[in-house]
TrEMBL record:
Name of the protein this chain belongs to: Chaplin domain-containing protein
UniProt lineage: Bacteria, Bacillati, Actinomycetota, Actinomycetes, Pseudonocardiales
Amino acid composition bias (Low complexity), ranges on this chain: 351-370
Coiled coil region boundaries: none
Keyword Ribosomal protein assigned: no
Composition bias type Polar residues, residue spans: 505-518, 544-555, 958-968
Residue intervals of the Chaplin domain: 103-137
Organism the protein comes from: Lentzea flava
Region (Disordered), start-end ranges: 338-370, 493-518, 544-570, 957-984
Amino acid sequence: MQTWAKRGIQSAFVTGGLLMLGTGIASAQENVNPDAQPSPVDAGVSVPLKVDQNNLGTPVKNLNVPKIDRTISTDRVTSAVPVRTAAPVAHPLIRQAAGRVQGTAAQGLFRGNTVQAHVDVPIEICGNAIAVLGNSEVAGECTQETHRDGTIVTDGEGQALAGNVVAVNHVLPVQITGNAIAAGGNAATATDASQVSTTGGPITTNGDRGAASGNVVAEQGATPVQITGNGVAGLGIAEVASTADTFASSKGNVATSGKNGSLSGNAVPIPLAPLFEVNGNAVAAVANAATDSTQTGAAYAGGHTGTDGDPATLSGNIAEPALAGPITVDDNAAAGGGNATAVSDTTNESIAGGQTNTNGNGSTGSGNIAGAPISLPTSAGGNGAAVIGNALTDHKNDATSKAGGPAYTLGDNSVLSGNIVDAPPATAVDVCGNGAAAGGQAAGTCENDVKSLTGGYQGTIGNDSVVSANVVQAPVAAPAEVYGVAGALGGAATGSADETKEVRSSGQPNTQDDHGTVSSNVVTAPTAAAAQVFAVTAGLVGNTESDTANDTTVSAGYAPKATGKKSSVSGNIVQAPTSTPAQVFGDGVTLVGNNTTSGDNATDMKAGGDALTTGEQGSITGNVISAPVASGTQVAGWAVGGGSNVDAAATNDLDSVAGGDVNSNGDGGSIAGNLIGAQATPFTPVPGNSVSAAGITNSDTLTDTNIVAGGDSYSTAEDASVSGNLIHVPANAIAGVYADAVAAAGQASTVTDKTSHTQAGGNMFTEGSGPLSAREMTVPAEVAAYVRRIPIEVIGQATTAGTSDDTQLTGEDEGTLRAAKLKGIELPKGVDSLLKANEVPAFHGIDQLPVNTLPSPEGLTALAGQLPTPALPGVAQERTELPTGPGGVANVNPNVQGLPLGQVLEATKGLLPGAAAERSLPSLPVTAPALPVPVQLPGLPTERSLPALPLDGPASLSGLNLNPTQGLAPQADERSLPQLPLNGPALSMIDPANLFQTVTGSL
């Protein structure tokens, strides 16, 4: 390197350092008194530079680039770089000031406060060959290793404005090795390079019994840059055989404390560990370029963070943003009028941050944790692109990325303490194994194995606290990728990929308290999404091919848990999980050409999970609002061609689940243990269609999907008030276009075997006693619309074949039967058991019925023609069904308080089948008090059912005809009526408005 260049680089770093720090930059001295106080400011920038074994070929001669082995820093330029790089000398002004205060009263002036800023940029340039109108060849081994210790130990215990730490420990190694560049010549390189760069260390301080003491803000960064094994040729030949490894670390635990302090012991670690790589690529322009490379990389930043705020004020809090993920552009081949071949194997690991724990017991505004870990592995590898040339790739990628970790805190006997807020997005972006050709041939091949993880378990406790131990989280797990895609314009292209991917965001939120106020609540909105395009081919006057397999697991959040026993506004859960994959795969589209596509998909997606809480003996406790949404949007197995031959094959196994069962307890509570669910499963399958215009298209598709939103709900409410109520609004909608064939002057065929299961909500179970408690209400909505197995022929041949097995479950398991038959309503639990065998309830306005005595045969005979009585209740009769004769339900307009059922029935008359069938008009929701519905004679409690519409009879109640004895006999699939109870207490003068209020479903 020229002298002027070295001096220029040195001056730039010196000037930048001075501007950054203003008065000066200091660091640990090389020859210091071990008994001397450390400098309060320790900062520096260091650039160890190693240039070795590089060659330049020219028409005149072949030159070996001079060797350079130096360190450029803000203080000096060293002559050599040892294994452990020496720290720069402290700035003279700082060194002079520190020396003057030694042994004086001013020695404690800085009170242990420390500012440390270390940035190291090791650069390795080795084993490169550059040929310009000549030949260049290099073979060698290259190594570089640097280290700087960033350990900090200080103390601010019992002091004000003491023991605080601001630290930057960052390493940014740059590795440029094994590259071959040829311009009108031949360049070849064979290198084995390694680079190790470490910094950081533990940071320890203390702010116990202090004011604004023991706080830590620490950036811990490891961000390696790797540019290795690339071959670039223009009017020449470039050949590369390269092995490269880079390792960067800025690890270190952060430990402090703020016990009995104020504004003390807070920690803000900032771990950053992304890798940046451009490796193993081959580029040829009217030339040949070939690379065969292996590269590995690792970056580690941060560690465990622990502090304490017990007891304290605004102390012991933790806020940790973190970033992890390799970002790579590896093993791509591009040819323009030439040949490019890239073969490589890449392995990377990136980890930022770790576990956090603190304590806010007996405190105010303490022991809280806020996390924002981000995992973002991004890769563009194994892609081939050719323009009037040939491009071939064979790429293998193994990447692991993890940010953040589990979080633990406590908030007992506290105010605004022990809370957790977490926003941990995890994603993976991949463009892999694609081929694109224009007037040439391109093949992209990729084997991809990626893990992207953020956060973890989140636990806290808030006994006897106020606004404490709450958990709020928004996990997001969302891969986005394009792989195994081929496109050709006047050429031939192949895309092939085999992918295994796991993306997980956050973990289980778990909180509990007894005797808390606005504490231990959970609010979670986990989102699982997947935007994936794979095994898709498209050609215009070209040939395309793809054979791609996908195995993806995506999970966001986990099963939330909370408790709120003997508490107020505590232990409640609000969750809104969504699972929404959107996938396009196994599709082929070609206009004039040949196309073969095969896609195999296995995707497992989950957002949230079972919710468990309790609100026993609490006020506004243990309630759950759950609004899960699960869907599955897939365009798979399409064959579309014009003047071409297209064969598309797709297999699909998809599970998309949001939420789960909900379980609570409101015993002895007030507004406790109530469960409100709004579950939705919008499902839009579009598989296995074939469209041909003057060509031949074939689709062969096998798909199995399982879409579930929510689950069963359980609650109890013994001796409670406005508790244990269940309200479900499940919605299940399918809109499918599949297994259709369209042929215009061509042949189109499809064979589609489709199985799907969609479920919204589940069964409801509750029991208890007390005013407005243990009620159930469900309002299901179900829609299915299909355009399937329709052959359309326009001077062509279209054939469709296959099987279909679609199941919709909306609400409770009895939903299918309930849609065909509207059952009679039974006496509410807890009431029928109090009625004697010789008593019936009194009803106002029904003078013909006896009161407090069983009707005699003579009395019933007198009612002949008015009240049909085929038999006493002991003789089972078949229950009534919806009228199916002329008029249907048009003449039934029940006056149900709270719902406009007349309008609902009017809107659904057209949907009513001619007779009761397997699936018919959905059951009517139960609504307001004083429901005017028929009543069966009292008996032992049986399973709950929905009301039957009355048919005839002169007796009336609120304008609705009643027939209390008809329809009591069960059908083959229904439970028999029990025998009448004996020796029960009388309950004869109960007003019907009160008698039926426990099944109204209105809170």
